[in-house]
Sequence to fold (420 residues):
Amino acid sequence: PGAAAAAPGEHAMSSAGGGTTVDVGAIFDAARFRGLPLLVFSFTALALVFDGFDITAMSFAAPTVLREWGVSRAELAPVIAAGLAGMGVGSLALGTFGDRYGRRTMLCVCLALVALTSLGCAAAGDLVELGTWRFLTGIGLGGAIPNASALMAEYAPARLRNVVVAAAIVGIPMGGLLGAEVAAQVIPAYGWRAIFVIGAVLPGVLCVVMWLVVPESPRFLATRPARRAELERVLARVGAGPWRGDERFVVREAGAEATAGRLADLWSPTFRRDTLALWLAFSASVFVIYAFGSWLPTVLGDAGLPLPTALRGSVAFNLGGVGGSLLVAWAMTRHGSRAVLVATLLVGIVAMASLALVPLGPAQPLVPLFLGLVVVGACTNGVQVGMFPVSAHVYPTALRASGVGWALGIARAWGVASAF
Fold:
């Protein structure tokens, strides 16, 4: 008490052999969640909201496409699967590129790709064209998630990382919630193509603004000595510095010594067990969420519910997803990840079994259906969102985007299976 406050970054510095070593990770771990970290969170969360909007766009368009083109659900299934397959490719390839070229760079590339290919979806004239464009859109959508989660994890202070990363990932079901409500208003008035036009404009504008406003991850820059000046500017925005020029910037974190950023290191003895567990957990989660996300409006419509009501079934599912994700993130900070995620899964099992017993039809009450969808959405999305801070914690900087990207990429195969 009464001592002078430490300068920003002071506790992250050490001297050895006449030089000063600066732990960039420690500076941001101790930073306050305001200014630059809050700015990065805001843009990252918004990017994932638009990502969630575009992920679910095909499910909103599906009932109208079926009627307008006179095709069956079986014929439409490959189009839905194409988008999910593209997401698998994007997660695998562009997640890895994020570790090589930078998280912010690849996130902007992904947003630009989504914008351009969504316009292609809007102009498609048959199922082959639509499926091709959805595959390309999926590449951008799949690449955005691991890069966004890695970028946010590397800016968030340690004490808030679980909540901050999870809150950013909540943007995905929030985008589905937004998209379902927009679709309920827009598609009946302007047709299904309008939802893809909106899905192009939003990420396109955000891409330009993010490129101008959001800097690259400081932990990533610390592994690139040639970008020292850029790193110093980022550090200055959280009050760290000035620097003399002879400091050595590093990132000290668990597991960093076990990898040089090689993809094969995911299966090294250090990470093998966690990698396998994450692949299994994400695969099960993706299968359930995309089965609901891809087909829910169509199934409810086939049961005799009017299109706006069927689309609002997705609103209920995603509304539960937003609330459940935030609740799971909050609980994880107090009780750890394992107990919270297992408890959430148990509630989800009961809710799913109960939902299977709810009668569907235009004359049936909607409250049991919508309540069941809210609870199922809360549990399934809550678990998946909770897995992102877990996976960001498992892997060090050199493997983080690759590790998350491959977990999601492998899981997309189960997403493709859910389409059929």
About this structure: Residues 36-69 form the longest helix (34 residues).
